[in-house]
Each structure stands twice: as structure tokens, then as C-alpha cells.
Amino acid sequence: MSQPTSPRTRLRPDQRRAQLLDLGVGLLATRSLDELTIDLLAEEAGISRGLLYHYFGNKHAFHEAVVRRAVDDLVEQTAPPAGGEPLDRLLASMSAYVDYVAANHEGYTSILKAAQGGNEALRGLYDEALASLTDRIFTEDAQGELIADTPAARMVVRAWAAMVEQLVLGWVEDPTTMTRDQLLATVTGSLPAVVSLG
Amino acid sequence: MSQPTSPRTRLRPDQRRAQLLDLGVGLLATRSLDELTIDLLAEEAGISRGLLYHYFGNKHAFHEAVVRRAVDDLVEQTAPPAGGEPLDRLLASMSAYVDYVAANHEGYTSILKAAQGGNEALRGLYDEALASLTDRIFTEDAQGELIADTPAARMVVRAWAAMVEQLVLGWVEDPTTMTRDQLLATVTGSLPAVVSLG
């Protein structure tokens, strides 16, 4: 990384692969997994299908690599800010989640469908992401200011996450039902509210 | 229905079909859809596979008929009592739902998986059931004592139902996480709590 490089010819293989994954993730935002073909990526990247197979092996491995990258992006983009009140930090995280789902709706719903529909590799990636996002609620709130870390609270947070996903997807599909602020107040405020009921 | 009939020989075809469906629903309680084969039903009913094909056409139609009957049972068994406070009636309905999921766990999860996994007929039945159960929240509370009927509340109730399903399935799979009363307090109390946040 000591000198600027030509984007087309000077990249190392791992850098080129990462660049192609970025391109794939970008294409997935507004397309379903089924539409994200090796042909499309080859055309968009201006390289041969053969070279893509060289990097990713086959279509399934390509899809897995793209989804793994998309999941990493989601977890990273929704990380709460370092400081502040627990509920404000959760609100910031939820706000970023809403933005992510809005910007990547096609890809998000197609990954969800594939994960639920028996694609074991994508199911594993989806479950990993869900575990990261819900575990983070507890690690980010290690003092238990918002919710105490108990098996019951862990189970409720998993269920709350299902509600949040459904509500945010519903809102992105029809944003006239409530304002973005109402949505954020609902998904954020519901966490302590629901956990406190048990 | 004017006289008692022998259960094996005097039933009309529609009665015999209904009886076979009852048997299928009962078998599905502790088995997945995949395990609910025409062979199994034939063996349990003591009749020929040929006769079962005569009643149901093929395995998919048989599964659809059984799931339709199971869904009708679920909606009927979880109907709230006629009188009482709205929250008490919801509690009674949720209590029946918990019992239903506990008694029919294998079949319930396999129907859910099939519906999510792209079986369009079962998806349709699942969506119908979900719509019946969530619409009923509003028709049973026509005065809006518990929640006012707005597009936002409808969307939140759909998302709340996803949380309830996830939480009840999680609890049935590991009932040590909280007491049944804690579960019921959470799923019931969360409805007005979450709707009020938006």
C-alpha cells in the first residue's frame, strides 16, 4: 500500500477478490441473490467469467462469500456509538439498522428467504449475524443498565429481534404507516418494555 | 346423523375424509410434515393407500388438507372468551396458543419451515392463519379499548405476532428459561406496551 496502484492491474489477488466482493455486495443491495449471477458480476467488473470462477469456485461459494461480507457490513454499520446513555446508543444502532435495510432491501429479503428456506450455509450466516447483533445488546450493556443478562432476557431479546426485523421490513415496504421517528421509538423502546414484563 | 353409525363402515365419504383428516392432524402433532406420509396414515387408519389417494389425490394435497384443518383448529382453540376485560381475554387466547404450540410442536415447526421455505400453498395457509389471528385482535377489541385500529397498529401487531411466535417456540423448546406465567405476562403485556410506543 506504499504507492497508489492502478485499480485494474496492480492489485494482489486478495485485494482483487475483496474488490469483487464489494462490487457483489453493492449489486445485491437492489437485487435478489438469484439475480446476482457470476455473469452479472463479470459484466459489471469487466473481467471474464473464468476469472470469477477462479476467485470464487462456483456460484454457491460466490453467494456465500458475498453474504458473509454483507453480514459483516451490517454488523459494523449498526455498531452503537462508544459513549452515551444505553437507550440512546440502542437508538443510534436501530437508526443505522433501518438505514441498512432501506438501502439493501432486495438483497436483505432474498437472503432472509434463502436462509429460512433450507439453504444451510446461508441459514448459518443469518443465525451468526442474529447472534452477533443480539449478543451485542448484552456486551454493550455490560452493567445491565438497560436489561440484566439472564437466560430469560436472552430469549426475549431473540424474539424482540424477530419483531424488529418484521417491523422494519414492513415499514421499508410501506413507509406511510408511521414516521421514521415513530418506528425508531417503537423498536428501541420495546426492548426494555418487553424484557421488563416477564 | 340420526342414528349411531359403525365408525368403520357406515360413514359417508365426507365424514370418512374428515375422520382421516382428524387422524392426520393428530399424527402431525408429534411428527414433521415429511414424516406424515400416506403410508403412515394408511397404517394408522387401517385402510389401503389406494383409498387414501382416492380421498386426497396426492401427498401434497393431503398435506395441504391436513394443514388447513390444523390451522382451523389453531384459530378455533385460541378464540378468546366471549366476555371480560380486553387484556384478560387476550391472556386467555395467548394461554391457549401456548398450549397449542406445546402440544403440536413438531408439526407446527415443520409447517413454519415449509411455509418459509417456498412451499407456496403452505405459505398461503400460514399467511391466512396469521391474518386471522392478528385481525381478530382488532375485531375482538372493536371499541379500541386495548389498541386503536390504525394502519400503524396493524403493522405493529403483525410484528408483535412474529415476536410471540418466536418466544413461545423458544419457551416450548426450553421451558426452564422462565415460568409459564412470565411467558404469558410477556406475550400479553407486550401488545399494548409496544403499540403505545409509536
From TrEMBL, chains A, B:
SUPFAM superfamilies (alphabetical)? Homeodomain-like
Q: Ranges for the HTH tetR-type domain?
A: 14-74
Q: Which residues bind DNA?
A: 37-56
Coiled coil region boundaries: none
Superkingdom assignment: Bacteria
- Which Pfam families does its entry note? TetR_C_46, TetR_N
Gene3D superfamilies, alphabetized: Tetracycline Repressor, domain 2
Keyword list (alphabetical) reads:
DNA-binding, Transcription, Transcription regulation
Q: What is this protein called?
A: TetR/AcrR family transcriptional regulator
**What species is given as this protein's source?**
Nocardioides aestuarii
